[in-house]
Fold this protein.
Amino acid sequence: MNADDIKALRKELGWTQRDLAEALSLEVSLVRDWETAEQFATKAHCDEMQKLRENPPPKRSKKAKTPMQSLADPALWTLVRKLLAHGALRAACEKLAAEYDDPLDNERAG
C-alpha cells in the first residue's frame, strides 16, 4: 500500500489518522509518515489494512461524549427522572448501577 492507498482507506472508513493508528495499535506519527511517504507500511500492516477494507468496522459517531459531557446533557436527566419515578425501575437501576464505577470517582482521581 502506498501513501495514497492509505489515505483512501481512511476516507472509505471515515477515520482520522489517529483512528487508523488506534485500530492498528500504532503511534499516529507512523500513520502520518506513511501518508507523506516518509516511511512505508510493513507487509503485516498492509495486510491488516486490507482486512479493514474488506471487512470494515461499523460506522461510529464522530466524537463520543465523555462521561462528564453525558452527565451535562439535559435529555439524560429527563430520562433519569422518568426511570426513577417508578419504584420497580428504580430498584432495578440501583442494582445495575452498583456493578459499575462512578465516573465522578475517575474524574477526581485523574
About this structure: The chain has a mean pLDDT of 87. The chain has two domains: 3-54, 67-109.
